[in-house]
Amino acid sequence: MKNLVLISLLFLVSLKGIGQLVPSEFEQITHLVTFGADSKPGWGDDDHTQIFFFIVPESFTKPVYIRVFDPDIGGKYDEPNGEWDTGVKFSVYGGKGAHSEPDAKKIDPIGKFKSGTLLASKLFQSEARYDGKWYTFGPFNPMEGEAFPQLNGRVFKVIAEGIAGNDGNLYKYFLSTKDFENKEVEGANAFTYEYSFRLPEVKNSVAHLYPFIEDDVVSITQHNFDFDFEGSILIYSIAKNRHRATPSKNREWGRSKHPIIDEEKNTTVDLQIVKGRTSRNDMVCYVTNQYDEAVAFFSVPVGGPPKFKYKLNVRYKDKDNDND
Question: Are 211 and 287 in contact (CB under 8 A)?
Answer without folding.
Answer: yes
